[in-house]
Automatic annotation (TrEMBL):
Polar residues bias (residue ranges): 36-51
Protein name as annotated: PIG-P domain-containing protein
Membrane-traversing stretches: 58-80, 100-120
Keywords assigned: Membrane, Transmembrane, Transmembrane helix
Domain of life: Eukaryota
Lineage, broadest ranks: Eukaryota, Viridiplantae, Streptophyta, Embryophyta, Tracheophyta
Organism: Brassica napus (Rape)
Bilayer topology term: Multi-pass membrane protein
Region ranges (Disordered): 1-53
Domain called PIG-P: residue spans: 56-173
Subcellular localization(s) per the UniProt record: Membrane
Pfam families recorded: PIG-P
Length: 179
C-alpha cells in the first residue's frame, strides 16, 4: 500500500504539464506487462474527472437557456392572438398592455439607475479646491538618493512616489519647461 501522504497528494494534485510529462516517463520505464494496478487506475487527468463542471459554467448555461425560454414565452404572449392561446388551454395571462409597458419600465429603470450612479460619484468626489485632491493616506514623497553612492555607481530606480504639485505646475504653465 502506498504511503498516505502520496495518495493524498495524487488525489488533490494539479494537472500541470510537468506532472503529465513525469507520468508519461514513468509509464515508459515500466514494461507493458508489469504495470501495477495503481498506475493504471490514476491518470494525470484524474482531478478534472472528479471535480466535474464549475458552478459558474452551470450558472451560465442555465442562465442562457432560461433567457431563451423567457424570450420565447414573451414573444408568443405578445404576438399570438387571444383565441389561439385559449384554444391551447391558456386562459389566464397578463394584459397586452404589459407587452409595451414592461420593456419601457425596464429601460427607464436602467436609465434612472445609471443617472443615480453618476450622481453618487459626483457627490463622493471632493471639490477641486480641496486638499484631498492633492494628498491622501496613500501619498508618498519622492525618496532621496543615497548619499553614500560613489560617482561610478549606477543610479538605482526611484521608488514609486507622487510628483509635487509645484513641479507639475512649473512644467505645465511655465514657458521654460522642465527644470
Amino acid at each position: 500500500s502506498p504511503p498516505l501522504s502520496k495518495t493524498m497528494e495524487e488525489a488533490h494534485s494539479v494537472n500541470s504539464p510537468r506532472r503529465v510529462l513525469s507520468f508519461s516517463k514513468r509509464q515508459k520505464q515500466k514494461p507493458f506487462g508489469l504495470q501495477d494496478s495503481d498506475s493504471t487506475r490514476s491518470s494525470p487527468f484524474r482531478a478534472s474527472q472528479v471535480q466535474g463542471p464549475k458552478p459558474s459554467e452551470v450558472y451560465g448555461f442555465v442562465g442562457s437557456i432560461s433567457t431563451v425560454v423567457a424570450t420565447l414565452i414573451f414573444l408568443i404572449w405578445a404576438y399570438v392572438p387571444d383565441k389561439l392561446l385559449e384554444s391551447i388551454g391558456i386562459h389566464y395571462y397578463p394584459s397586452r398592455y404589459w407587452v409595451l409597458a414592461m420593456p419601457t419600465y425596464l429601460m427607464v429603470t436602467l436609465l434612472l439607475g445609471l443617472a443615480f450612479y453618476i450622481g453618487l460619484n459626483f457627490i463622493a468626489t471632493p471639490h477641486p479646491t480641496s486638499l484631498n485632491t492633492l494628498f491622501d493616506e496613500y501619498s508618498r514623497e519622492p525618496g532621496e538618493i543615497d548619499s553614500q553612492m560613489e560617482e561610478g555607481d549606477e543610479r538605482p530606480i526611484d521608488p514609486i512616489s507622487d510628483i509635487d504639485i509645484t513641479r507639475i505646475n512649473d512644467i505645465m504653465f511655465n514657458s521654460s519647461g522642465v527644470q
